[in-house]
Amino acid sequence: MGSSETSPLLVLPADSDTQGPATPEENKEQPADPELKKTLCPYATVGECRYGENCVYLHGDPCDMCGLQVLHPTDTAQRSQHIKSCIEAHEKDMELSFAIQRSKDIVCGICMEVVYEKTNPSERRFGILSNCSHSYCLKCIRRWRSAKQFESKIIKSCPECRITSNFVIPSEYWVEEKEDKHKLIHKYKEAMR
Ligand SMILES: [Zn+2]
Ligand SMILES: [Zn+2]
Ligand SMILES: [Zn+2]
Ligand SMILES: [Zn+2]
């Protein structure tokens, strides 16, 4: 990639086939390549293409999910591939916004602060206990569990309900639902190996 911005080449009207004097700088003018017309426009697929009808590239059909002109009119494999990945991306987005939604008001049972409102952004993390649903910031629960004056059974128990948890899982989001928690624990154990 050069430093100069590349832009799609305009298709010249059919009668301007005659090659003008070669311009010394960017003389990459291509004859309207019919192959390009089969290639989805790199501009239209990520946003808007200002060349519209005159674009040398193919403008696909708009996708219902993302609204971009990305669906190849005849390549059905490409269409279904895009729709599939678009749905997946959308589901991820939804998951993320749900995760933020359920996390944002959670209070730490030790410092009593809303975890997402901690002054230090690096402290806005949860320490999820594997066996109960009491919420703590990672820093607080780690400090609690590292207190040397207590025996290990006390240290490993939740300060609120006393249930012993073998793990504190660091998490950016609050996780409480059984299945989600199971996944989180599994991922954590995998990463610890
Ligand atoms: Zn275009
Ligand atoms: Zn899409
Ligand atoms: Zn705390
Ligand atoms: Zn608890």
UniProtKB/TrEMBL annotation:
Residue ranges, compositional bias (Basic and acidic residues): 25-34
Pathway: Protein modification; protein ubiquitination
The organism's place on the tree of life at top rank: Eukaryota
Enzyme class, broadest EC rank: transferase
Record bears the keyword Hydrolase: no
Gene3D superfamilies the UniProt entry points to: 2.30.30.1190, Zinc/RING finger domain, C3HC4 (zinc finger)
Protein's name according to its UniProt entry: RING-type E3 ubiquitin transferase
